[in-house]
Design a protein that fits this description.
By secondary structure, this protein is mainly alpha-helical. Helix content is about 55%, strand content about 0%. Helix 5 packs across helix 6. It is elongated and about 75 Å long. It binds heme C.
Protein backbone atom coordinates (compact mmCIF):
# COMPACT_ATOMS: atom_id res chain seq x y z
CA UNK A 1 0.00 0.00 0.00
CA UNK A 2 1.25 3.50 -0.85
CA UNK A 3 1.46 6.26 1.74
CA UNK A 4 -1.75 8.11 0.81
CA UNK A 5 -3.71 4.85 0.67
CA UNK A 6 -2.52 3.90 4.17
CA UNK A 7 -3.60 7.29 5.47
CA UNK A 8 -7.01 6.89 3.82
CA UNK A 9 -7.41 3.40 5.28
CA UNK A 10 -6.50 4.62 8.76
CA UNK A 11 -8.91 7.52 8.43
CA UNK A 12 -11.69 5.11 7.45
CA UNK A 13 -10.86 2.94 10.47
CA UNK A 14 -10.93 5.99 12.70
CA UNK A 15 -14.42 6.77 11.50
CA UNK A 16 -15.53 3.21 12.24
CA UNK A 17 -14.28 3.14 15.83
CA UNK A 18 -17.06 5.11 17.53
CA UNK A 19 -19.71 3.01 15.76
CA UNK A 20 -17.99 -0.21 16.90
CA UNK A 21 -17.89 1.01 20.49
CA UNK A 22 -21.61 1.76 20.24
CA UNK A 23 -22.31 -1.75 18.95
CA UNK A 24 -20.42 -3.30 21.86
CA UNK A 25 -22.56 -1.43 24.38
CA UNK A 26 -25.74 -2.49 22.58
CA UNK A 27 -27.78 -0.39 20.18
CA UNK A 28 -28.53 3.00 21.68
CA UNK A 29 -32.23 3.27 22.49
CA UNK A 30 -34.62 5.85 21.12
CA UNK A 31 -34.82 9.21 22.88
CA UNK A 32 -38.08 9.53 24.81
CA UNK A 33 -39.35 11.93 27.46
CA UNK A 34 -38.67 11.29 31.14
CA UNK A 35 -42.35 10.40 31.59
CA UNK A 36 -42.32 7.94 28.69
CA UNK A 37 -39.14 6.34 30.03
CA UNK A 38 -40.73 5.89 33.46
CA UNK A 39 -43.79 4.44 31.69
CA UNK A 40 -41.62 1.94 29.82
CA UNK A 41 -40.02 0.90 33.13
CA UNK A 42 -43.31 0.47 34.98
CA UNK A 43 -44.97 -1.23 32.02
CA UNK A 44 -42.10 -3.72 31.75
CA UNK A 45 -42.37 -4.59 35.45
CA UNK A 46 -46.16 -4.69 35.89
CA UNK A 47 -47.87 -5.20 32.53
CA UNK A 48 -45.57 -6.96 30.05
CA UNK A 49 -46.13 -10.46 31.45
CA UNK A 50 -49.77 -10.32 30.33
CA UNK A 51 -49.86 -7.66 27.60
CA UNK A 52 -46.56 -8.57 25.96
CA UNK A 53 -43.02 -7.20 26.03
CA UNK A 54 -42.84 -3.84 24.20
CA UNK A 55 -46.69 -3.87 24.03
CA UNK A 56 -46.37 -6.28 21.12
CA UNK A 57 -49.42 -8.24 22.24
CA UNK A 58 -49.92 -11.59 23.86
CA UNK A 59 -52.74 -14.11 23.54
CA UNK A 60 -53.35 -13.78 27.31
CA UNK A 61 -54.78 -10.26 27.34
CA UNK A 62 -56.01 -7.34 25.24
CA UNK A 63 -53.57 -5.93 22.68
CA UNK A 64 -52.99 -2.48 24.17
CA UNK A 65 -51.48 -1.08 20.98
CA UNK A 66 -54.89 -1.63 19.36
CA UNK A 67 -56.84 -0.56 22.45
CA UNK A 68 -54.96 2.74 22.76
CA UNK A 69 -54.73 3.56 19.06
CA UNK A 70 -56.89 6.21 17.40
CA UNK A 71 -60.54 5.08 17.62
CA UNK A 72 -59.68 2.28 20.06
CA UNK A 73 -61.66 1.85 23.31
CA UNK A 74 -58.67 2.97 25.42
CA UNK A 75 -57.36 5.79 23.22
CA UNK A 76 -58.17 8.41 25.83
CA UNK A 77 -56.08 8.92 28.96
CA UNK A 78 -59.01 8.77 31.42
CA UNK A 79 -60.52 5.53 30.09
CA UNK A 80 -57.13 3.81 30.07
CA UNK A 81 -56.07 4.94 33.53
CA UNK A 82 -59.50 4.06 35.00
CA UNK A 83 -59.09 0.42 33.90
CA UNK A 84 -55.50 0.31 35.15
CA UNK A 85 -56.45 1.60 38.60
CA UNK A 86 -59.75 -0.30 39.10
CA UNK A 87 -58.87 -3.41 37.07
CA UNK A 88 -61.57 -5.69 35.68
CA UNK A 89 -62.28 -8.02 38.58
CA UNK A 90 -63.27 -11.45 37.38
CA UNK A 91 -61.84 -10.91 33.90
CA UNK A 92 -58.17 -11.32 34.66
CA UNK A 93 -57.15 -7.65 34.72
CA UNK A 94 -55.77 -6.85 38.19
CA UNK A 95 -56.37 -3.49 39.89
CA UNK A 96 -53.22 -1.39 40.17
CA UNK A 97 -54.72 1.50 42.14
CA UNK A 98 -52.96 0.37 45.31
CA UNK A 99 -49.71 -0.54 43.55
CA UNK A 100 -48.99 2.36 41.21
CA UNK A 101 -49.07 6.05 42.00
CA UNK A 102 -51.16 8.37 39.82
CA UNK A 103 -47.92 9.58 38.20
CA UNK A 104 -46.86 6.02 37.40
CA UNK A 105 -50.27 5.21 35.84
CA UNK A 106 -50.07 8.39 33.76
CA UNK A 107 -46.53 7.48 32.68
CA UNK A 108 -47.63 4.01 31.56
CA UNK A 109 -50.41 5.60 29.50
CA UNK A 110 -47.89 7.98 27.87
CA UNK A 111 -45.63 5.05 26.96
CA UNK A 112 -48.41 2.73 25.69
CA UNK A 113 -49.99 5.60 23.70
CA UNK A 114 -46.59 6.33 22.16
CA UNK A 115 -46.29 2.67 21.14
CA UNK A 116 -49.89 2.65 19.80
CA UNK A 117 -49.28 5.79 17.73
CA UNK A 118 -46.04 4.39 16.30
CA UNK A 119 -44.09 7.20 17.97
CA UNK A 120 -42.05 4.94 20.26
CA UNK A 121 -40.19 1.97 18.77
CA UNK A 122 -40.02 -1.46 20.40
CA UNK A 123 -37.03 -2.05 22.67
CA UNK A 124 -35.41 -0.29 25.55
CA UNK A 125 -35.49 3.50 25.16
CA UNK A 126 -32.49 5.66 26.05
CA UNK A 127 -32.48 6.91 29.62
CA UNK A 128 -33.28 10.62 29.38
CA UNK A 129 -30.39 12.79 30.57
CA UNK A 130 -31.03 15.42 33.21
C1 LIG B 1 -52.41 -10.87 35.12
C2 LIG B 1 -52.46 -10.39 33.76
C3 LIG B 1 -52.55 -8.90 33.54
C4 LIG B 1 -51.69 -7.92 33.98
C5 LIG B 1 -50.46 -8.09 34.86
C6 LIG B 1 -52.16 -6.69 33.41
N1 LIG B 1 -53.27 -6.89 32.67
FE1 LIG B 1 -54.36 -5.48 31.68
N2 LIG B 1 -55.69 -6.87 31.11
C7 LIG B 1 -55.59 -8.23 31.37
C8 LIG B 1 -56.72 -8.91 30.76
C9 LIG B 1 -56.98 -10.40 30.79
C10 LIG B 1 -57.49 -7.91 30.14
C11 LIG B 1 -58.79 -8.10 29.35
C12 LIG B 1 -59.95 -7.99 30.31
C13 LIG B 1 -61.28 -8.11 29.59
O1 LIG B 1 -61.51 -9.12 28.93
O2 LIG B 1 -62.07 -7.16 29.68
C14 LIG B 1 -56.81 -6.65 30.38
C15 LIG B 1 -57.29 -5.42 29.94
C16 LIG B 1 -56.62 -4.24 30.04
C17 LIG B 1 -57.08 -2.99 29.52
C18 LIG B 1 -58.36 -2.75 28.74
C19 LIG B 1 -58.13 -3.04 27.28
C20 LIG B 1 -59.38 -2.97 26.44
O3 LIG B 1 -59.24 -2.79 25.22
O4 LIG B 1 -60.49 -3.12 26.95
C21 LIG B 1 -56.11 -2.07 29.80
C22 LIG B 1 -56.11 -0.59 29.42
C23 LIG B 1 -55.07 -2.75 30.51
N3 LIG B 1 -55.41 -4.08 30.66
C24 LIG B 1 -53.91 -2.16 30.94
C25 LIG B 1 -52.96 -2.80 31.74
C26 LIG B 1 -51.79 -2.15 32.27
C27 LIG B 1 -51.38 -0.72 31.96
C28 LIG B 1 -51.14 -3.06 33.05
C29 LIG B 1 -49.92 -2.84 33.90
C30 LIG B 1 -50.02 -1.79 34.91
C31 LIG B 1 -51.90 -4.30 32.97
N4 LIG B 1 -52.99 -4.10 32.17
C32 LIG B 1 -51.54 -5.47 33.60
C33 LIG B 1 -54.60 -8.86 32.07
C34 LIG B 1 -53.55 -8.23 32.71
Amino acid sequence: MQGPAVVAALAALGCAWPADAEAQRGRPGQQVSAQEYEGWRQYSVHCARCHGQDVLGNPVAANLRESASEGGPMAGHDAFVAVVRAGRPGRGMPAFGGVLSKEQSDAIYAYVKGRADGKIAAGRPARPSG
